[in-house]
Amino acid sequence: MTEQPGPERETAGHLPTSSAAAHGTRLDPWLGAYADRTHGMRASEIRALFAVANRPEVVSLAGGMPYLDGLPLDVLGEIAQRVVATRGLQALQYGSGQGDETLREQILEVMRLEGIDAHPDDVVVTTGSQQALDLVTRIFINPGDVVVAEAPSYVGALGVFRAYQADVVHVPIDAEGLIPEELESTLAALSAAGRPVKFLYTVPNFHNPAGVSLSVERRPRVLEIARRYGVLVLEDNPYGLLGFDGEPRAAMRSMDADGVLYLGSFSKTFAPGYRVGWVVAPHAVREKLVLASESAILCPSNASQIAISTYLSTCDWRGQIKSYREMYRERRDAMVGALAEHLPEASWNVPDGGFYTWVRLPDGLDAKDMLPRAVTARVAYVPGTAFYYDGAGSDHMRLSFCYPTPERIREGVRRLASVVAGERELVELFGTSASVPGDVVQAPGPDVA
Amino acid sequence: MTEQPGPERETAGHLPTSSAAAHGTRLDPWLGAYADRTHGMRASEIRALFAVANRPEVVSLAGGMPYLDGLPLDVLGEIAQRVVATRGLQALQYGSGQGDETLREQILEVMRLEGIDAHPDDVVVTTGSQQALDLVTRIFINPGDVVVAEAPSYVGALGVFRAYQADVVHVPIDAEGLIPEELESTLAALSAAGRPVKFLYTVPNFHNPAGVSLSVERRPRVLEIARRYGVLVLEDNPYGLLGFDGEPRAAMRSMDADGVLYLGSFSKTFAPGYRVGWVVAPHAVREKLVLASESAILCPSNASQIAISTYLSTCDWRGQIKSYREMYRERRDAMVGALAEHLPEASWNVPDGGFYTWVRLPDGLDAKDMLPRAVTARVAYVPGTAFYYDGAGSDHMRLSFCYPTPERIREGVRRLASVVAGERELVELFGTSASVPGDVVQAPGPDVA
């Protein structure tokens, strides 16, 4: 989590030291006992930097936190009160492993905005859509199985695939998203090599981190290719309703109910603190997902589900999404305007929705190497390497425009531009910039959700 | 979930049919794509029965739901309102993967009642302690690894171990809990066979389902044996503060900080609907658990955590636990009184805390075979087979006294006695009772938490 000021975040950066002192040792007596999968779990080397980046004086263009100041907190407080006072015996009790049925019906209403026609029984409510990612991976992936994903791809999904010892094969994208011809040749090569591909993971709308969307023309082509190769499509769509222009695009799930698992979330269109997401799946897969979720958490929180359900039934949630869209569009404008003014030597896309700009640095610059100096200059971002399975992406960085105000975004880009200028001088003098140790970025955690 | 009346629970029993009709098929086109671990996930054959058992006319002695009617819902409603209205920007936002620091400090206060001395940094907040079970299993278990557990053992833990393809070896218990000599000989035999034991899973207080507690004398002996064999102890303690007589026993974690992972929960001492549990782990293990949890859910719900934190800091939570203890003691008395009156041919223990009585049926009776007839007679329980990895336990059943009122408990036992009498007549006539198909009970879900 970034840019949240206050004592808790500040303290968090110091605690490991005091804990190590309190316990006298950091040795791990259980080192030999871990499962194989655990050896792939490592803290990102950028984590320590993010602890610093959380300080209020740093402009963080790193996080994926939505900006919540526009929410009607007094109204939401009354809802929370009513949920507990009048429906407490249900809200505070265990619930269904699949999720509250009323909420599942309301989720259908939300998804109808993207053309999805489903049954409440097809929906499984999860603890954020991150848990849906975990459950889908859990039921499909054996160690060594292949997941095909965009290059770049959402860092939190890559972390899940790594945790289940999958192998991720990236497919290039362009301004219209996943390139069907590249997908086809990748699947053909994997098939020829006898490597089973379990699913295609894709963020078709306002991609994290690349900011692009899969064009409406390409959607049926991608689905047709996946179907032909017997590959399930995992459509991850947290940002689909946050487009800046026009109507939402039709979801891939709306074109293929049997071949697509659809992941949705209230984290970006409402608020992440309740941790409510969902997955829509064909009947038999849905049954497995419910069993897997019961094993993982027994059931999602009734209190959270009923709060969101009441919000949806009593508040103007469409109006809230509209005001989010306007706010994020203004911030996107601030971001691309500041880039044009201060960093014309870089290149970037102009996203028409979502939270992120994907920036290519001038030749010779390395986004990960540069990060410590950026944080020293009081600006933070996520280096492109976080979004590749194989350490590629060092020439890119992800800049988020979701959380800081337009003014802070402009200030952040100004600071970034001075860091880039300093790096370019170093490169001109020495042919390279100094390097921080470490390789592929691992599990950066909620900081860069 | 059992005994929750109302339209939602009723509907849930019918939906699969309508869904199958809506989709026209129950075939699974992705059957060949599942991971190996998924083939071990099966719905319990008692699940369909529990859908019926949820009807209000059935007395369910099956569920592990706490009885929440005594909670001050008006006060909790005000807390929920305050949390959102005054701290909404934090409560509705992403939080730390490890959990809210204030709550982690308060958890230390709760655990101090059982003699545990820890640092807030040792605590990881989870989505119920079920998620803690999942995370611990995830980081330690390779397929084929051995987990040692009491015979019988908590069904939800067995489900997690199965989901990670562990092999569970049971160790007998008696009225004082796990038998140290049996643990030692089991570990010795496994060691001689070259089979790595990753951890000992134990519920030392008011065992689920057996109702017994590990005596204070045995605790250091069990720890010493585990240490000698290099086996981590997973101490699962949701009921420790719900003893009916005297002070809470000292936790095993209070005697060994490096060799014990401790699982705690607010589900039984407060309410399960917020889904807040925790794990206390040695430093290095804790780091792995945080990474695993971030991969699984990004972070636990801030809204839930702050609600519980505010409850702990502003309400008399110790008084609430005391009133729970008195209520459950009264229900325990109703249960054992009714058993003595109506089922003297069975045998059972008299638990001094928690939610469960473990009942041995008269010779020749099979608890799983009998269940459909019991549900027909409007009483439900969980057959003993659910609590064994290997299908043992058919001569036992778990009777819960947590949710139904004393009067309903007595009525339930009366109904059960008439079913048992009918079974005994069958056995006397034919030498056996009729059987339902199916074998080991799998993943019964939140119904029997």
UniProtKB/TrEMBL annotation, chains A, B:
CDD domains the UniProt entry points to: AAT_like (cd00609)
Gene coding for it: avtA
Record-annotated Aminotransferase class I/classII large domain positions: 70-416
Stated name of the protein: GntR family transcriptional regulator
Cofactor(s) recorded in Swiss-Prot or TrEMBL: pyridoxal 5'-phosphate
Residue ranges of the region described as Disordered: 1-22
Compositional bias annotation for Basic and acidic residues: 1-12
Record has Iron as a keyword: no
